[in-house]
Write a structure and sequence with these properties.
The protein is about 10% helix and about 15% strand. The protein is α+β, with helices and mostly antiparallel strands and about 70 residues long. The longest helix is centred in the N-terminal third of the chain and has 9 residues.
Length: about 70
């Protein structure tokens, strides 16, 4: 059985191995509710809708209460 005559370099070895782990880009679609980009077959991360239904309710940002006056209480 034939054997290699010379040792392959690390660069040549690693370049060959790097091709096997290349990742493909996933397909992205637009959300019909908010028109933002989202991965296909998943709930929209920006509005929480999937297949025409609200699946995940989004949290609303609350403003600071007016009674604080901008200072911390100790």
């Amino acid at each position: 059985m034939p054997n290699p005559k010379r040792k392959h370099t690390r660069s040549r070895r690693d370049s060959r191995r790097a091709q096997n782990w290349r990742l493909d880009r996933t397909a992205a679609g637009t959300c019909p509710n908010c028109k933002s980009l989202k991965p296909s077959h998943t709930v929209c991360p920006s509005c929480g809708w999937y297949n025409g239904k609200l699946i995940v309710a989004q949290k609303k940002k609350e403003k600071a209460s007016e009674g604080e006056g901008g200072q911390q209480q100790k």
